[in-house]
Every structure is written in C-alpha cells, then in structure tokens.
Give the backbone structure.
Amino acid sequence: MVLDGSPLPDGSVARMLGAAADGARAAGGEVELHRCYDLAVRPCMACGPDATPGYCVFHDGMDAVYAALERSHAVVVGSPVHFDTVSGPLKLVMDRCNCVTPLVTLADGRQDCVPKWPRSRRGAFVTACSAGRRPDFAERSVRGFLRWVGAQWEETLAWSHADNERGSVPADTLAAARALGRRLIEGEPPGGGRAGEPEDSTWPK
Ligand SMILES: Cc1cc2nc3c(=O)[nH]c(=O)nc-3n(C[C@H](O)[C@H](O)[C@H](O)COP(=O)(O)O)c2cc1C
C-alpha cells in the first residue's frame, strides 16, 4: 500500500512514490494508492480505552485506509517535510490509526495497547525537504505510525534540494525509489509481535 501525504500529484514525493509503485509491480506486487489530500478524514478525538470493537467510532475516508493497511504486505508512506514533520492530511490519517493498536482493558483489569494485527508488514518512508534540512522529525513520526499499524520501518529515502522546481527529484533518486519498491515485495516479511497480545517494547522503533 502507498499512503501519499503530498499535496502535489506531480511533486517530488508523488513521483518517488510512483517509482516505488512501479518497482513493486515489476516484482509482481499489486499496489493500492491512497492520497491523503483526497480523503475526507475527521481528526482523532482520543476517545480513550475500549472505544469500539471496530477501528474507529467514525466512518469516513479512513474505512478504505484501514482495509488497505490490514491486507497489505508492505506500507510505503510519503510526505514532504512541512514545518519539520509530515503534512497535515497525512497526520490526520496517522492519528486515526491509533485504534489499530488500541488501549484496551485486559481480563485482569489492567489496561494496555493491544495490536489488532500481527506485525508482519514491511515499511518505508519517502520524503522531500529543503537543502541543508533533515527529515528526522518526520521520520520519527512515520516510524511510530508504522509500528502502530503492524509494519516494521526499514528505510527512509529522502530528496533534499535547493531548487524551487515542482517535481525536481532526479533520475538516480527515482531509480532508488524503484529499487525500494522492488525490495519491499521481494523480501521476507518481518517476524515478531502477535495480534491480540499487548504491545511490547522489544519491537524495534
Ligand atoms: C507548508 C510547507 C512547509 C514546509 N516546511 C519545510 C520544513 O520545515 N523543512 C524543509 O526542509 N522544507 C519545508 N518545506 C519545503 C518542502 O518540504 C519541499 O519543497 C519539498 O520538496 C516539497 O515536496 P513535494 O514537491 O513533493 O510537495 C515546506 C513546504 C511547505 C509548502
């Protein structure tokens, strides 16, 4: 699954995600693209423990995202860096995924975060930012999100540039994105973590 958090369909991030999708298809994968800027998504209301047996109390553009995440073998998240983190529409989607590993009351009365899915997905982050800047904070946020939706972050591909040209990402970075997409399909899924068991600190951040 490709989760595109970029506003520009012909921007650098969208082009990198397109190349990653091409690579995945070339390796025999099927690619499902969800553009956060096209989704109608309400913000997470932090409704607390035992909120719902489904994914969320709201039903909106997120319903299709939950379904795609659940059946995916790999999740590629893309976003330009906006004020040092991911774009607003992607952040809305990420927050609404808190209930993939919700806080629930256990049989003994304690509360813990329990994943709905096994942690069997592969994950990567594709980003673009200005020259001399780093996507660290955005990456940190995406890595936390991937963990919460049962994916293991493997790498970040970043295009850092001084120009103001739309979609200026160069051919070698697009080739790296294609190779990334191919790798995500060809490699073994990660092991570790089980659905229905409390989230544990051994899962790599
Ligand atoms: C609202 C907004 C905030 C931005 N904030 C940052 C920032 O904090 N750090 C940075 O390096 N670039 C920042 N940029 C620049 C973009 O990250 C950069 O131009 C990126 O390549 C855009 O990718 P795109 O063409 O795929 O949209 C910002 C751009 C916008 C529109």
Summary: The beta strands are 2-4, 33-35, 74-80, 103-105, 111-113, 121-130, 151-161. The mean pLDDT is 93. The chain has one domain: 2-186.
